[in-house]
Amino acid sequence: MFKADYKKLRLSFNEFHDVSDKDMPQYGEFCLLELKTGAYTAGSWSPSGNRRTAAGCFIRGTADSIDSEDVARWHSLDRYDLTESLEDEEINWINLGPEKEDCRSMQFDGFKSFAGGKNPKQEQYCLLIMKDGSLAAGRWNKWRRKDGGAFIYAPALASHSCDKVWAWTPLSSDEFFAMEVERENERKREKELNKNPSVDPELFKYGTDIDVYYEKALEKLREEFSWATLPMMRKETPVWQIAPLHGKYVFGQISKNYYDDSDVVTPWTEGATADEFVDFLCRYTHDAVEHSNPGEKFKFGTDINVYLEKAFDHVKKEYRWLDKTMIGKTWKYDIRRVDGDLEFVRKCWNESRYSVYDVESAERFIECVEYDYQSAALQANKTVASYAPSFGSIELHGWYLERYVFYKLESGDYKVSVTAGDRVTGGSRDFFITPYCFEAKTYEEFLNRYLEIVPDFSFGLGKKELLPDKKLQQFLGY
Predict the structure, then answer these.
(1) Is 417 left (phi over 0), alpha (psi -120 to 50) or beta?
(2) Is 190 helix (H, G, I), strand (E, B) or coil?
């Protein structure tokens, strides 16, 4: 990498352009900015209206810009390549633009490096020397799930990754950085307050073990639901905990802050006493317990094969090529004890851990397995021909129909695949066209039955579009 010592380096920016002269950069040019307040920042020039005007803004990121009326002077960052200078180990001062008498100049030093173990503070706007020798700037944003981060410099989170930056130095503080500093100070104050939290004797007369309150609520629930257990109650998520907040213990729900993974405590506010909280827990967990009756859930016993057999027999009536081995290539099922209670569980063939099926009845679990059998059967049945009816622009509740294709399967059966999306997302779904549809004597009667499976108001094409399509009629055997 460069031989120059970033710790001793100074950059002197000369020949600033004065905004009052209406001497503005080219559209999109990234510039160092001196504000009328004397602060320094940077941004990409975006004129308003006629591109020759001095009106506009310098863009720094998404919803982050500086109006040209707040800028006194600018100096282009795009025009320089410092590679040759930085390869000289004796270099410690680089002039950017010729020095002249009465020329506006500004020096920046105090450079730091990620290689030296230094990170900017969150939301700090910095001047950057890139590893390719160019100059840039951006607002530091630490990556959430791993070390490092990036400097955001344009909308849509366009950024310079930290591994592309050779050295950086902070520019002036701004409102975003000031807000982050205040948030960090608040986090420190909160941490200090919570070192020795106080206890409200009325609210925590049964102590500060949350399990005690759940157990008291459990005693009341068992008056109505004899099968109630603590694991059933805790299915109602998020669960309640006892946590410090603003220097005192509270009943609360804890979530993670998206930006820094810190705990966010949402306190319970529906009462002021321990017994009121116990009554609240009964109401909060009532439905979860009611729908966890093991007599309903395991009415056919605790042998998982009984449930799989029922699902298989039902699906086999229409998916005539279905084989029991098909589902085993994708899913495995079991009945296991989870936190003391029996649960239906499922895992993918290539995973090591089971996940719980949160269903309230045996019938609901069987329906879920039936869906898995259907998907496995369609996947195993190869397509041998296809037909795509033509259609124009069709909007589906904010999405647009992108693809609608009928397929003939190797078994002689048919399915249809529908895809819809918007500018940022989309989804596809396959539907098996059941034998019942093909028992219809006419094509029109077939469509009446088919559109009960793939209704036009949900998936775009209806009788109006499909009935006149002679090629589709022939493709389907009518």
Answers:
(1) beta
(2) helix
